[in-house]
Amino acid sequence: MEKFTILTSTYVPLPIENVDTDQIIPARFLKATTKDGFGNNLFADWRYDKEGKPKKDFVLNNPTYSGQILVAGKNFGSGSSREHAAWAIAGYGFRAVVSSFFADIFRNNALNNGVLPVVVSPKFLSELFDCVNKDPKANLTIDLENQTIKNNVTGISEKFDINSYKKECLLKGLDDIDYLLSRKNMIEEFENKAII
Amino acid sequence: MKTLFDKIWDAHVVSTVEDGPTQLYIDRHFCHEVTSPQAFNGLRARGLKVFRPKQTTLTADHNTPTINQDQPVKDPVSKNQLDTFEKNAKEFNLPYFYPLGNRKNGVVHIIGPENGFTHPGMTIVCGDSHTSTHGAFGAIAFGIGTSEVEMVLATQCVFQSRPKTMRITFNGKLGKCVTAKDIALYMISKLTTGGATGYFVEYAGEAIRSMSMEARMTLCNLSIEMGARGGLIAPDETTFKYVEGREFAPKGKNWDKALAYWKTLKTDENAKFDKELTFEASDIQPMVTYGTNPGMGMAINGTIPTLDEIDEAGRISFQKSMDYMGFKPGEKLEGKTIDYVFLGSCTNGRIEDFRLFANFVKGKKKADHVVAWLVPGSHMVVDQIKAEGLDKILEDAGFELREPGCSACLAMNDDKVPAKKYAVSTSNRNFEGRQGPGARTILASPLVAAAAAVTGKITDPRTIL
Ligand code: SF4
Q: Do B202 and B168 form a contact (C-beta atoms < 8 A)?
């Protein structure tokens, strides 16, 4: 897994609420047997028309906006547990998603793929949308070590939450499986004293 | 004083990472073809075996056709995924593997309970969010991502932060034509799709106690649609009766031991929940959704909210959703013409759902313009449908049964609703494009689906039954 430390980047605004995983990556793209190539189909139904041509009005097709951070409306990632959603976001090149609220499973999946979900206040979020509307080159800085996110246009920053275990994993680029494997004897001990 | 959730959780904690998640032991892992291939690749890359092969049950369901299952799968990409699944099950020596054509094959959350793999007090995971279904047995069951599927295969554990607990009580009795699906859609419309995020929900109250296992599964299944990690119901006689005698249920002395333990699985009288909600069952009517998430539901005879009733931040999304559905704020849905009906999915693809549907359409005829997909959740459901003669009733009314699978619930196979067509669906998600690009989904119970199938319109089943 790629390490995550400090990221300063312009960002792509998606001011829609309740963006669900079927929107992030529609089910018909889930037939793959590897993790590659999902980035091309991120938000496929909003991004391409029936003939597969880019739709002009969708933000990912608008060259004015770019960056490694996606800023989205409330309740991002609801719906299915498909990790393909996180692979699509990572595959597209996003390292962080900022919203005022995330669905549980998505948040876990993102963290397991080196994508940092950052929860900000509704006010901070709406300022991010305002700033990028005025200037598409508006940017922000996410500092994982200090758990801060800063809107570099207004100069306002906020603290965000992440549990220290996941933070450590991201900072070092380690994953859960390595950690669990080091505890195999604990698992066997647990099995031996199971209730039924 | 502990809640049911606390009891099961605490019994499965292997260790806790300092200021981190809990390492939770998993009793039963369900696995399907779509969210597992990358996990098996991961095992291979690390040179690992499956740690406890007997604790994983595998079935192909998401990406499978619902006709001609005895013939080779036509779509080469789907076929590759199914072949990969089989190859993985063999290579890793997994004994409980049920491919297409196997008599135990079917939708993962239907075959699990049916074959007795699901027991009270278990921790259960699957790379599918509707794993919450198994909570109906008094189990902690939740969906996981593919990285976690790999973790479970490798170590039989996952990392989870402890969710908060919520109890939702339904007092009193349900009205005519009101089913578990209506309770769920009602509850989600009150809480919204994010309203239970971070919580594990216990359902309680008279209306829940009097429900069959099938109905309890429908309700727990939909817990995830309000953001909850899962939902569960304390096991009781109804539960024990359902489990007893099934193929993978404990037998003999093991049964007695298990039963004694299961009987302790209830919330202590003074246990505290982080949140408590109460609803009156009699307030609930047959429900339909009008928008593009399961929280956008209303009574079938009600009206869509007007723009003024939506708070300002949500208006763009609301209008987008109305445009997608081709509905206007403030309008009624009753009487609107529909094109498709889908009976099936892990929400409503069990025998009881087919009984409800068949009893309703008995002696009536399917509306000519309606395309109806009736997809039983498993071969066992099919066999039961035939044993009860429901297939004859359905046939006489102009319906035919398809073969088991997820089908139009997620439309990965050919069962796709065309763009702009209206589908009354007993599945669980009405997201944009969920049932096919541009498809317009109206979620409802099997009874509302049956009423729509025979009248060709959104119809309150109470006006007919
Ligand atoms: S029926 Fe639908 S929700 Fe259930 S397991 Fe299949 S795809 Fe998932």
A: yes
Query: Any idea which residue has 């990472």 for tokens?
Result: B17
The response to whether residue B403 sits with its C-beta less than 6 Å from ligand 1 reads: no
Contact between A22 and B147 using a beta-carbon 8 Å cutoff: no
CA–CA gap between residue A102 and residue A84 (Å, rounded)? 16
Ligand 1 centroid – CA B47 distance (Å): 31
Report ipTM (2 d.p.).
0.87
Ligand 1 pocket member B62 (CB < 6 A)? yes
Average pLDDT of chain A? 93
Report the C-alpha gap between B177 and B446 in whole angstroms: 10
> Rounded to whole angstroms, how far apart are CA atoms A29 and B431?
16
- In this prediction, residue A28 carries a pLDDT of 87
Q: What is the DSSP string of B147-158?
A: HHHHHHHHHSEE
Residue of A122, A182, A147 whose CA lies nearest to B23: A182
Q: Quote the pLDDT of residue A164.
A: 87
Q: Is B108 in the pocket of ligand 1 (CB under 6 A)?
A: yes
| CA distance linking residue A121 with residue B313, whole number of Å | 14
Burial of A194 (0-12, 13-18, 19+ CB in 10 A): exposed
Query: Would you list the DSSP string of B406-444?
Result: -GGGTT-SS--PPTT-EEEE-SS---TTTTSTT-EEEE-
Per-residue confidence at A196, pLDDT binned at 50, 70, 90?
Answer: low
Instruction: Judge whether residue B12 has pLDDT over 70.
Output: yes
Residue pairs spanning A and B at CB distance below 8 A: 188
Per the DSSP assignment, residues forming a β-bridge with B13 are B24
Token pair for B433: 């494009």
Residue among B214, B162, B218, B165 at smallest CA distance from B188: B218
**Are residues B221 and B346 in contact, defined by beta-carbon separation less than 8 angstroms?**
yes
- Region B119-129: mean pLDDT is 97
What is chain A's alpha carbon radius of gyration, rounded to the nearest angstrom?
18
Nearest to B258 by CA among B167, B139, B94: B139
Q: In what order do the strands lie in the sheet with B56-59?
A: B96-98, B56-59, B28-31, B123-126, B140-143
Evaluate whether B113 touches B213 at the Cβ level (below 8 Å).
Answer: yes
Chain segment A89-112, per-residue pLDDT in tens: 999 999 999 999 999 889 989 999
How distant is the Cα of B357 from the closest Cα of chain A, in angstroms? 27
User: Checking phi first, is residue B389 left (phi over 0); if not, alpha (psi -120 to 50) or beta?
Assistant: left
B134, B113 contact by CB (below 8 A)? yes
Question: What residue of A is the nearest CA neighbor of B262?
Answer: A196
At residue A122, φ and ψ (nearest 5 deg) are -55, -35
Q: Distance, CA B202 to ligand 1 centroid (Å)?
A: 22
Statement: the pTM of the whole predicted model exceeds 0.90: yes
What is the spatial distance between Cα A88 and Cα B52, in angstroms, rounded to a whole number? 31
Give the number of other CB atoms < 10 A from CB of residue B388: 14
Contact, B246 vs B115, CB < 8 A?
A: yes
Q: What is the pLDDT of residue A150?
A: 98
Q: The dihedral of CA A78, B22, B231, B128: what is its sign?
A: positive
Closest chain B residue to the Cα of A181, Cα to Cα: B155
